[in-house]
Specification:
Distance between the termini: 59 Å
Order of helices and strands: EHEHEEHHH
Structural class: alpha+beta
Number of helices: 5
Shape: globular
Number of strands: 4
Length: 132
Amino acid sequence: MKNIDILYYDGACPLCRAEINKLARLADSTLSLQNIRLLPEDTSTPDKEQLLARLHLRRADGVWLTGMAANIQAWQHTSLWWCWKWLDLPIVRLFSYGAYELWLTWRQRKTRDAQQTKQNCFASGQCRTDGD
């Protein structure tokens, strides 16, 4: 049996799916991509809400990585590994990890806003404005 890293991603996030689609085309067979929303209830992984809060990767040795570290590790399974490895160098990581955190905050706000908009829409597809 091969040692496989598992990347857990939010299948309901269009931005996430776009990146995962690229990764899926380029990754070798030692990376498995797991849509968090399709996970069965299981005690061997963190709960779904925790997984959805940020990118998670479980390495083949059982070690969990999150955020930018998970992203960098996932891309190590592609021929483009060298494009990502430098983002983990000590000085560069100060910026790359910080940029990931800013992106994550933006993504969470966009997701929350989209959910709020969806809740405000009528069944007919017409949405109320804030003044309605």
